[in-house]
Design a protein that fits this description.
alpha+beta, 2 domains, 5-stranded antiparallel beta sheet, 3-stranded mixed beta sheet
Length: 120
């Protein structure tokens, strides 16, 4: 398994190197690639109807954004980001929960606030 992963990474690096980027274009491409590989949108979410997959699980989790899976919509139309806040414990462990949700307005560029929790 590790050999296959190593080969994939080497292939990506070789392709990137063959493209001949300068320092500034390399940084630009890396920034976009980082977002894409994390399944994050490159441009702001619009909230338009074609951006949503309707699940209709309940009134709270009615639809999920196709471009950013961490953004959901309630049946009443209000969207929210389930990873808007990430809590970090003193040992570095990070987690999300119900308190991580924040309502959003469109256009929306997903962002995460890190909240350091005090030692207990």
């Amino acid at each position: 398994m590790q050999d296959a992963i190593d080969a994939c990474v080497i292939g990506i690096v070789e392709t990137f190197a063959e493209q001949g980027h300068s320092g500034s274009s390399a940084a630009y491409v890396i920034g976009i690639l980082d977002k894409v590989l994390r399944f994050e949108p490159v441009t702001p979410l619009t909230g338009e109807d074609d951006e949503w997959v309707v699940h209709a699980y309940d009134d709270e989790c009615y639809a999920q954004n196709k471009r950013c899976g961490r953004v959901f919509k309630r049946r009443n139309g209000q969207a929210y980001d389930i990873e808007a806040v990430v809590f970090r414990d003193p040992d570095g462990f990070c987690w999300t929960g119900a308190d991580s949700r924040r309502d959003v307005t469109f256009p929306y560029t997903p962002a995460t606030e890190i909240v350091d929790r005090p030692a207990s």
